[in-house]
């Protein structure tokens, strides 16, 4: 499987950023864990992070051209208001799983809404960096069961 992992704004600050919420792992460490799992399963992946909405949308559109099998996205704060990222995911129609390190539904009320979730096949929230691996496994199951 060709899986693209897309990280949104401020996730490049993991390790430094609010460690009591997001933990002490850096994004580099999380990406290494993801790559280890991807290699073990003989998948291939591209990992991308941006702080800007337009670049995230460009990457989602690029995934369509690259015939990607599945996307794992942590849209970070864009989760809560980016209709443009929602529309991009709908446009490419690539099976996508939304991931959050923190349990967004237990936090401030503005985080309880995801405008991205309706464009995804599922959401994983609250399991820290392990959520990315769980999301890849969910994509594996989804793609194996798909009949089209
Ligand atoms: C986050 C949750 C978002 O509400 C927040 O804006 C983030 C990170 C998470 O991974 O828990 O930047 O997506």
Tell me about this structure.
The chain has 148 residues and is an alpha/beta fold. The chain has 5 helices and 5 strands, in the order βααβαβαββα. Strands 2-1-3-4-5 form a 5-stranded parallel β-sheet, with helices on both faces. Helix 4 (83-92) links the parallel strand 3 (70-74) and strand 4 (96-100). The chain is globular. The structure holds 1,3,4-trihydroxy-5-OXO-cyclohexanecarboxylic acid (DQA). 1,3,4-trihydroxy-5-OXO-cyclohexanecarboxylic acid is lined by residues 10, 74, 76-77, 79, 100-102, 104, 111.
Q: TL;DR of this structure?
A:
With 148 residues, the protein is an alpha/beta fold. 39% of the residues lie in helices and 18% in strands.
Q: Mean pLDDT across all residues, rounded?
A: 97
First CA to last CA: what distance? 16 Å
Order of helices and strands: EHHEHEHEEH
How many DSSP helices? 5
Strand order of the largest sheet: 2-1-3-4-5
Name every ligand kind in the structure: 1,3,4-trihydroxy-5-OXO-cyclohexanecarboxylic acid
Q: Would you identify the CATH H-level superfamily?
A: Dehydroquinase, class II
Q: Roughly how many Å is the radius of gyration?
A: 14 Å
Number of strands: 5
Sketch the major β-sheet.
5 strands, parallel
Percent in helix: 25-40%
The CATH class, by name, is Alpha Beta
The tally of domains stands at: 1
Judged by helices, strands and strand pairing, the structural class is alpha/beta
List the helices and strands and how they pair.
Elements: E1 2-7, H1 19-22, H2 27-40, E2 44-49, H3 53-65, E3 70-74, H4 83-92, E4 96-100, E5 122-125, H5 130-145
Parallel strand pairs: 1-2, 1-3, 3-4, 4-5
Helix pairs in contact: 3-4
The structure holds 1,3,4-trihydroxy-5-OXO-cyclohexanecarboxylic acid (DQA).
């Amino acid at each position: 499987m060709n899986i693209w992992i897309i990280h949104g704004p401020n996730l490049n600050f993991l390790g430094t950023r609010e460690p009591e919420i997001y933990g002490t792992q850096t994004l580099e460490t999380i990406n290494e864990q993801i790559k280890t799992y991807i290699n073990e399963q003989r998948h291939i992946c591209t990992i991308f992070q941006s702080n800007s909405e337009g670049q995230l949308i460009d990457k989602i559109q690029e995934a369509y051209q690259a015939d990607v099998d599945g996307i794992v996205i942590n849209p970070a704060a864009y989760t809560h208001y980016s209709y443009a990222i929602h529309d991009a995911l709908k446009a490419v129609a690539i099976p996508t799983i939304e991931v959050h390190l923190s349990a967004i539904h237990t936090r401030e009320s503005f985080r309880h809404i995801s405008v991205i979730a309706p464009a995804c096949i599922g959401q994983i929230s609250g399991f820290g960096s392990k959520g990315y691996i769980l999301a890849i496994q969910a994509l594996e199951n989804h793609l194996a069961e798909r009949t089209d």
